[in-house]
Amino acid sequence: MKRYDRLGQIRRLDPERDFLRIYRMTATYEFPWDFARALELALYRTYAMPSIGRLLAETAELTDRTQKRYDDTALLLDTVVEHGFGSEAGRTALRRINRMHRSYDISNDDMRYVLATFVVVPKRWIDSYGWRRLTDHELRASTAYYRTLGTHLGIRDIPHSFEEFERCLDLHEAERFGWDEGARKVSDATLDLMASWYGPLAPVARGASLALLDDPLLRAFRYERPHPVARAAVSGALRLRARLVRLLPPRRTPHYARQNPEIKGYPDGYEVAGLGTLPVPGVRGCPVPHGQRTR
User: Fold this and answer.
1) What is the distance between the alpha carbons of residues 283 and 190, in angstroms, rounded to a whole number?
2) pLDDT under 70 in the chain at which residues?
3) Which of 36, 45, 104, 205 could in theory staple to 195 by disulfide, Cβ–Cβ 3.0 to 4.6 A?
4) Coil, strand or helix: which one is 179?
5) Which contacts (CB < 8 Å, 24+ apart) does range 136-139 have?
6) CA separation (Å) from 291 to 51, 65, 106, 294?
7) Among candidates 11, 50, 47, 65, which has minimal Cα distance to 264?
8) Domain boundaries along the sequence of the chain
9) CA 248 to centroid of chain Cα atoms
10) Cα separation of 54 and 288, whole Å?
11) φ, ψ dihedrals at 101, nearest 5°
């Protein structure tokens, strides 16, 4: 198999009918490392939405149990990619996600925005740092995949095209990104977790993560703007990696999130039905006290 042979296979498939197969090939054969990083960044962006960041801080899931929350989110989402929406494992993962979300007062606007980050951020990341750009074929398949995921999660008024998802994301961020003390704590905990994966290089890794954040994110969390040299160095290193990956032979086996070294909480394995948080005993509705949220 040559470097672009799998892309040829993808182009022979129908992006509306075969969206799961195309998305799986793109995410687990062509760009597994890039999709992992891009989806991390996608979820991280949502913390800058005060209604989301504040709720995450109130639950303490991302401040007190950061590694577990990271692991569970990655594994639940990737279970659907690996096994499909109609499989027993996929249905179990979707039930767990829905049960957790319905335990809290989360607006449809916020759910739709999170879904938009899953569509838009990987495309932007790979266009900048991937060994090749995503094709329109792959983008249509990714959009169809997340439309389907959103339907299973009960999200209303889901954008139909990538362009609509992109407008949704950009509009929400322009209107709603802002400071929240709890969101900043969630951001700090997440950056500390990611830095911890690199041992003695943790300070360098944290600095590199900050160098990848755009100005709206930095302003929302009130981080100092990284030095242009640091930004250029990190961006240059990622583009160098892309050129090297382009020279490598294509992957012959898929790589899923459960195989990532960053997943550290389940050395002895896991059951999909046991992932995530469980409802608080004796509490109906949202267990976190809060005021009225925008819908």
Assistant:
1) 28
2) 278-295
3) 205
4) coil
5) 137/10, 137/11, 137/13, 137/15, 137/22, 138/10, 138/15, 138/22, 138/23, 138/26
6) 10, 25, 12, 10
7) 65
8) 7-256
9) 26
10) 10
11) -60, -40
Give residue for tokens 């954008």: 159
pLDDT given at position 164: 98
**Burial 124-160, CB ≥16 within 10 A → b, else e:** bbbeebbbeebeebbbbbbbbbbbbbbebbebeebbe
What pLDDT, on a 0 to 100 scale, did the predictor assign at position 84? 98
33: tokens are: 């490392």
Helices (H), the chain: 5-11, 19-25, 32-46, 50-59, 61-64, 66-83, 88-101, 108-129, 136-152, 162-176, 181-196, 202-211, 215-221, 228-247
pLDDT of residue 290: 41
| Cβ atoms of 83 and 90 closer than 8 Å | yes
Contact status, residue 294 vs residue 109, Cβ threshold 8 Å = yes
